[in-house]
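Structure (tokenized):
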């Protein structure tokens, strides 16, 4: 499969700083919010996990032939959604061996998510939250770019219906899946 420019990170990306926007999440009960997965099945994250679920949340993926929003590379933490998804794909067997279900989540619609899942041959479902319902229910951090309100990049580890751990900010996104594997190995 040929690589596109969305699959690689520019070397001079700004590093996101921890603004404390996810500090309240560990220990929080996961609300019952059902989203449609790219598999077509409904997923309620409050019931996800065996025993754990890893939900990596990202702003938006690029699509070949479609330009990124103006100034995208200058927004700390915005760029890297495709490489992050590829990392979770490449570490999927390790994550599931550690007892975690894996989900990707963004505000992009299901058709857009489905195209990405097929193009990258992702072995796990992507969830679509175009209304940012989860952001409202949990107070998740967001930002605006190109006139769109988007999720800031973070990862939730769910265990027994609660948020056990929140990775925030996430940088670099292409190495994040290994960071999650390392954390799960220490936590089990």
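Design, position by position:
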């Amino acid at each position: 499969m040929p690589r596109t420019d969305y699959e690689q990170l520019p070397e001079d990306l700004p590093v996101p700083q921890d603004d404390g926007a996810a500090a309240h999440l560990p220990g929080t009960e996961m609300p019952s919010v059902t989203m449609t997965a790219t598999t077509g099945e409904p997923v309620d994250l409050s019931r996800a996990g065996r025993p754990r679920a890893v939900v990596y949340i990202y702003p938006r993926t690029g699509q070949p032939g479609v330009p990124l929003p103006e100034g995208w590379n200058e927004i700390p933490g915005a760029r890297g959604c495709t490489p992050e998804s590829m990392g979770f794909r490449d570490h999927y067997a390790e994550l599931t061996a550690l007892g975690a279900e894996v989900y990707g989540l963004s505000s992009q619609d299901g058709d857009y998510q489905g195209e990405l899942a097929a193009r990258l041959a992702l072995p796990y479902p992507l969830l679509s939250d175009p209304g940012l319902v989860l952001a409202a229910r949990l107070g998740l951090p967001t930002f605006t770019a190109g006139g769109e309100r988007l999720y800031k990049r973070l990862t939730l580890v769910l265990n027994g219906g609660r948020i056990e751990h929140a990775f925030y900010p996430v940088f670099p996104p292409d190495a994040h899946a290994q960071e999650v594997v390392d954390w799960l190995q220490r936590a089990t």
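Reviewer-requested clarification: The two ends are 35 Å apart (CA to CA). The longest strand covers residues 100-106.
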